[in-house]
Every structure is written in C-alpha cells, then in structure tokens.
Amino acid sequence: MFDFDELNEECGVFGIVGHSDAARLTYYGLHALQHRGQESAGIVTTNGEKFHVHRDMGLVTEVFSSDEVSKLIGSTAIGHVRYSTTGSSVLANVQPLVFNYAKGEIAIATNGNLVNGDKLRKELEANGSIFQTTTDTEAIAHLIARSNADTLEGAVKETLNQLVGAYALLILTNEQLFVAQDPHALRPLAIGKLGDSYVFSSETCAFDTIGATFIREIEPGELLVVTQDNEMCVTRFSEPKETSICSFEYIYFARPDSDISGINVHTARKRLGRQLAKEAFAEVDVITGVPDSSTSAAIGFAEATGIPYELGLIKNRYVGRTFIQPSQELREQGVKMKLSAVRKVVEGKRVVMVDDSIVRGTTSRRIVNLLREAGATEVHVRISSPPVKNPCFYGIDTANRDQLIASNHSVDEICKLINADSLAFLSAEGMIEAIGRPSNEKNRGHCVACFTGDYPTKLYDALEVEETV
C-alpha cells in the first residue's frame, strides 16, 4: 500500500430492525459508508431464533455477492465496515464480532476506540477471560457475559459505564437490538425510519441511499432498546458529558451529503474554505483542491476570493486497496498512480492548493511537486484545519506524536519540507466558527484534542504507555 499521508477513521456501523429485506438494505447502507473503512466488512442477521453471519476482508462489493446476501436470513441486521486502528487487520477482528455465552448469541459492531481497552483486557484476562481477537470491542462482550445484572439491558448498562473513550455501538441478540452513544458523542450515530422499521447509521447518507427518513441523532449517554416487533424503549446508561464530536467528521471523514447536528458536511467545508481565504489570502491565478475531501473547501476559498476554481488535480478512482505495489524505484512516485495534475489548468499559473490536513507531510510534498512538474510557477498550500500536533486515541490512526509533522516542525519548516511557496493553516477559532455548530458547550461541542492537546476523557492506556517508556 502506498505511503499516503491520510487520516483514516476506524469504521462505520449500520443496523435495521423489522424489515423483510434487512440484509440487502444493510449491504446498501454499508456501501454508502464504505469511505469510513475499506479493510473489511461484515453483516449479521437474525430471524429471532439464530444468527446468520458473513464477514471477510475487503470492500463491501468484494465481500458480499448477491448469493451471500441472500443467505443472510432475518428481518433484523447489523453491519460494519472497518479500518483498523487497534487490533491488526485480520479476519478474526472483522466486525460484527459474534459470541455465544450462557444467555445466547450476541453480535457487536462499534465505531470508535476505547482509551481504557487495554486496561479492561488485562483485568478480564486476570479473571480468566480468554480473548480470541486483538480488538478492544471483544472486551465489551466479556463484560456483558460476566455481569450479574438480572436482565440483558442491565448488563449492557453496567458494561457501558465501564467503557471510556469513543463508541457508537450496536449490540444484537435474537430478541433485541441495543444502540448506544458514548457520553461525549465523539463519533456520529443517527436514527432513521423506513416504513415501520428503525434504521441506525454512522452517517445520514446511508439513509438517503435506502430511502429512509432521518429522525434524530442518538444523544450522548443514551441507550435505545429495540425489539423484533419494532417497539423501542429510550433509556440512559449515563448522563451526557461535555459533547465532543470529532472535528474531522466535518473536515474530512464524513461524506459531503451527510448531515451532522443538522449541518450539511459539504456546506460546512465550503465555510471552512471561505474562512481560510479570510485568514490566509494569496494572490494567485487559480484555486484547486486535493480530491475528494478538499474539493468543497477549495470551492469555498475560490468563492470568497473571486479567483477561479479549477480541477487542477484528478483522482484515479481505480487505484484501490488491492492495487499492485510498484517497484522500489517507483514507490516514491506512487502518488502519481492515485493523483495526476491537469497540465493545461496549472501550467504557467500561480496555484493555491487547498487540502484538509497535513499529517506526516509526505503526500503534501509529492502533490506540490506534481503541480510544479505540470508547470505551476508557484504553489501556495492552504489547509482547512489547524495543524495536527497531538495524537488521537478515539479511533483515528495518529496514536504516535512522532508521526505528526506539525508536532515537530514550525509552519515555516513544514512549508520548506513540502516544497511550497507558502503554507497556512486555518485557526482553531476560525474552524469552530466556520462549521457553525450552535452548541453553548466548550468548543461548540467539538473535540479539538488533535489540535490543542485538550482531551475530553482521561487517557488510561496512553498514560500507562507513557509511564513505562
């Protein structure tokens, strides 16, 4: 796989209750969420008596044939697409994870990352638990199975109160579907309706794909219990804490046609671009964006400045997960297999290249050089987020400060390293203002830890690592 300098989100979840075509609708829902995880996919269905399961490595279209989907019998289903940040990328870790215990079958799909996952695992192993995977999601099943609560709902609540971190969670049994959102709402999770059926998804774009109607987002600390007959009980396992939705959902992760907290992602990104133009104008001839996530911000930048927006960079959509690795001699030029510059657009021009973030800096340098090789006379880089200086422990693959170029270099130093004529990042204040969440909470309900180092939860596992170094 190419050494692309991208942030990767851990996964996406989808569930539906009480529909005769549950498996196929879940397949379509996962396809809509494919951008959230491209390493593996899985679906578990139930007919009220037993589970039917199919999981494998690969994209949704690679994992599920029409025949495989037709074998997934039942009117209730949960599905998952995964990018691994904790636990290796192997079949055993593909979600939904399925378990058998004294009270029956249970399947779990989650989006996020537990910052006390290692701590819980060690405690459970010390008490006799044997783990079959390396993902922290398995600890949830062990905690439920070990609970002394009188009911499964009680066991789930007891378990959720032991988890710390980010989790948008679906737990399926043959009788019920449990849907939970962590007390900080670090990861998005929404509820919709398709006829009489309840639908749950990491993003609202999946509702549009299957023709469902958005109802609302799951609230922080909320637990929904839905029966096979589509009767839903709304309860809580925790009082809501300071809302801290990941800022990168708006900046990069979510699909542009999704809405989060009533804000359309494409519209928010355009506002980020406009704010960036106000803070870091450059006198150039053309604006271009790094496809696809930066296109909206580049359009906003162009609208604010009156400078034309052009498709100066084109993405090759057929360079996927299974693309043959180039030889060592070509690996440094591997970005050309994913992106190409449009010479007639940038040749002889001063260009602003808008991107959503710089993580390690390697890809930024290669794209700048692509534009120069295509004849751009100047390349000014503008980033529609603040510098990423701190690791994320909530489900993004930046858990090492040494990997972050902004943690170790000044803006001027980064500018030289990526071979740009100038470089500017959006301010944290400008980002929060541009996204436009109306919340009266701190940072308008955003998690900005990767920019500021102010984490919304205690970092149990990270602190333990630091203490042993």
TrEMBL record:
Pathway: Purine metabolism; IMP biosynthesis via de novo pathway; N(1)-(5-phospho-D-ribosyl)glycinamide from 5-phospho-alpha-D-ribose 1-diphosphate: step 1/2. [4Fe-4S] cluster binds at C246, C392, C447, C450. Its cofactor is [4Fe-4S] cluster; Mg(2+). Mg(2+) binds at S293, D355, D356. Its EC number is 2.4.2.14. Transmembrane segments: none annotated. Pfam families: GATase_6, Pribosyltran. Residues 11-229 form the Glutamine amidotransferase type-2 domain. Keywords: 4Fe-4S, Glutamine amidotransferase, Glycosyltransferase, Iron, Iron-sulfur, Magnesium, Metal-binding, Purine biosynthesis, Transferase. It is an enzyme of class 2 (transferase). GO terms for molecular function: 4 iron, 4 sulfur cluster binding; amidophosphoribosyltransferase activity; magnesium ion binding. InterPro entries: GATase_2_dom (IPR017932), Ntn_hydrolases_N (IPR029055), PRTase-like (IPR029057), PRTase_dom (IPR000836), PurF (IPR005854), PurF_N (IPR035584). It comes from the Bacteria. One of its GO terms (biological process) is purine nucleobase biosynthetic process. The active site is at C11. Catalyzes the formation of phosphoribosylamine from phosphoribosylpyrophosphate (PRPP) and glutamine. In the C-terminal section; belongs to the purine/pyrimidine phosphoribosyltransferase family. This is Amidophosphoribosyltransferase.
